[in-house]
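Data availability excerpt. The first of two example chains:
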Amino acid sequence: MPKVVHDAKIAILTCPFEPPKPKTKHKLDISSVEEFKNLQEYEQDKFKEMIKYVKDSGANLVICQWGFDDEANHLLLQNELPAVRWVGGSEIEMIAIATGGRIVPRFEDLDASKLGYAGKVTEVEFGTTRDHMLVLEDCANKKAVTALIRGSNKMLIDESTRALHDSLCVVRNLIRDDRVVYGGGAAEISCSLAVQEEADKQKGIDQYAFRAFAEALDSIPMALAENSGLNPISTLTALKSEHVNTGKSSIGVDCLGSNNNDMKQLFVIDPLIGKKQQVLLATQLTRMILKINNVIVSGKDQY
C-alpha cells in the first residue's frame, strides 16, 4: 500500500473487515468442496460489499480499530484503498478529533458527511526500530497536535512526559485565570511579610499561629536558595530586607546566577490559581494533622 496519501478523506471504522461469524451456540460444518466454494464466494462477496460501502462514501483511506486478514488486505490493495488496522480506541478518538470525522460502527452507516480530512497522511519509520507512526498533516481541526517524545530509556521518557504535562497544566491554568504572581519565592516572601505584620497586631495565642504560618511560607524561598547553592538564611534575610526597603514585591531568589533578584525583569512568573491552590492544600493538610492529633478541635485548644 502507498506510504503517502494526499487529500485524504478518512473513514474511521470500529467494525472489522471480515465476514460475519456464527454465534457461539452455532457451528458450521462443511462436508463437500461445493460447500467450501460457496462459503468462499460468500466471504468474498461480503468483503466486496464492505469495500463498496467505503468507496461509495468517497473515502480514499481507512482507519480501522480491528484487524483484517490477508484476503481483505489483498482486496483493499486491488481497489486502491489504503488501510491501517489495529488502531487503539484512544488513537481512534484522537484521529476523529483531529480530522473532524465521525467514528462509524457499521459499514451501512458510512457516508461522505462522516469522513475526516487530512491534507497529507504519511507512514513514518523510526531509524533502527520497527516502530511505525502515521503522521496526519493539514487536518480539518488545526488545533489538534501530537507530541512525540523519544529518549534513550523509559525513565527519561517518563520524566519528559511529566514535564510536558506540567507545562500543559500551567497553560490551562492561565486560560482559566490569566492573573500571575512573581516566582522565585517572591510571592511567598510578600505573603510572609504580610502575615508577620498581621501577627504583630494579634494578642494572645493567635500571634503564635500567625508567626508559624509566616515561617512555613519562608520555607519555599529557603529551599530555592539551598538548591541553588546559596546560604538559605542569609539569602532570605537579604531578600526580606530588600522587600521592606524598596517596596518591590517582585524580589526573589536568583536561581539562574544572573546577579539580578528582580523576578519581573527575569520574567519568572507563576499562575495565581496554581499558587493559591498550593497554599490552600498545604494549609488544609496542616489542619487535618492537627485535628487528628487532638491539638485543635473546632478552632479551640483542647488539653
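And the second chain:
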Amino acid sequence: MDSLVVWSGVMIACIVVEILTVSLVSVWFVIGAFAALIACLLNVSVPIQVAIFLVVSVICAIVARPMAVKSLKGNIIHTNNDALIGSHALVIKRIDADHMGEVRIKNQIWSASSLHNLTLEEGEYGEVVAIEGAHLVVKKEGN
C-alpha cells in the first residue's frame, strides 16, 4: 500500500508542476505515474512499477509531446513589419553593393539593401528576406 501513496503523490506533484509551468514536461510523468498506480493496484512488484512508470513516461514524451507542442503553438501570425518578410517588393531606386536603394511594398516606400550585395535594377522585383533597423534586405526573385 505504500507504493499506492507514492504513485498518487507523484501524480499530484506532477499535476501541480504542470499547472504552474505549462511546459508539457511533467504531464507525461502524470501518465506514467497513473500507469504505475494501476500496476500497484494489480499487485505488481515495485521494481516493475518503476519500470512501467519510466517506460510509459518516456514513450509519451517522445511520441505525444511534439504533437502537443505543435497543437498548442498554433499558427504564428507575423505582426507589424515582420509581416513584410517573404513579401515581394518592386525596386523603385537601383540597389547595388555601394548604395542602398528603395523598394515599394504594400504602398509604402522603404530603403533597401540587397542580400549578398547583388544589384537589383529599377523595375525588378525582389523578395524581402529580413529587416535590419529601418531598411529592408531583399534578394532577387528566383535566387
